[in-house]
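Ligand-bound model needed. zinc ion.
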Amino acid sequence: MNNFTYCTPTKLIFGKNSIEQLPQVLAPLGKRVLLTYGGGSIKKIRLYDKIKTLLKDFEIFELGGIEPNPKYSPSVVDGVNICKRNKVDVVLAVGGGSVLDCSKAICAGALYDGEPWDLIVYKAKATKALPLVDVLTLAATGSEYDCGSVISRTETNDKTAYSDELLFPVASILDPQYTYSVSAKQTAAGTADAINHVIEQYFCDEHHAVTDGMCEAAIKSLMSSVKVALAHPDDYEARAELMVCCSLACNGIFAIGTVKSGWPCHAIEHALSGHYDITHGEGLAIITPVWMRHILNERTLPRFVSYGVNIYGIDKNLPPIKIAEKTICMTYDFFKSLGIPMSLREVGIDESRLSEMAHHIAVNEGLEKAWAPLNESDILQILKNAL
Ligand code: NZQ
Ligand code: ZN
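Prediction:
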């Protein structure tokens, strides 16, 4: 097992009606609150009204309309300006990963004198950031329990993932009841995202019994809970399992003591949604089995065997290559069974920009150093095979 340092300072406040704790959580952080949210789902589920009532003693500024795959301009820029203009004390993000990610970039940009984009591309390092509290409404990215943020810049097709320990939320309020209204499409995509987060950590070097066990348990829970949630959107236990697994899947606990894999499927997917604005989890579901097929070889084979035997219960006495092939087919079939479109063409991507995207990924993502190294022509082949 490799040496590691692990720290997640975020307080998770989980459970039915945990929203009631919001005023006590915010009070020590200040009175002037920037409330951020997306395209309106929080109004439909009456969470917006609830929050306004709970926060009647606070001064609220608002930034609504944050887009899926949140954009630097206008969302981050507008949020930073509101904070600076009004001397905001704390940002309250209410929504899914996009609202949370955008809010993290706002928290950093608000206390930075230069162009906030410099922080996102590591041209500069923030020395302080506004505190962030969130109320999560979609189980998927794990942004509520990590310090990462993914921001897109439309004019350059950049979709950039960055992280900064200053950006861990102070507290995340997780009430599975607020996810009952998540559509079947987003429920499936969010679960595919979290499953891929675990896969990105499972297919690596220096894996060991503890991390394997956590990863396998999380994937099994995600796979069974999503089926229940799709059939019965208001099943509390299923939504709760999804929420907890998603929060844990991206905060590093499943990778303690391992060697980082390079997160190749994410590197590829971020280029897809940077260029075509597709749903992140759908892009991952399309890429994952294609990537698996591409990297299957004698060295990687044992990981496929343990994944297939422990996740899908494939007979361990079969020849290893058969187990691996079945594992890949079952991964594809599972995502498809959730109703996810399983080819690039189905999400509106044709061959015209594949080379451009492969080049973008090869230059920006460093996948030649991944657990299963990928150069530009490997990436292009994966994209072609995913069409
Ligand atoms: O905008 P609103 O109206 O809120 O609607 C959203 C949006 O249309 C809707 N939604 C959210 N909660 C809902 C709801 N609809 C009904 N009821 C509710 N309770 O769902 C749609 C998608 O929301 P979004 O926030 O975009 O989804 P998700 O949570 O999957 O976030 C995706 C973004 O996170 C990034 C992705 O790349 C993508 O940009 N990621 C962030 C990560 C991180 N910070 O650690 C890691 C991930 O790998 C990922 O890259
Ligand atoms: Zn993801």
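Residues 141, 193, 197, 266, 280 surround zinc ion (ligand 2) (CB under 6 Å).
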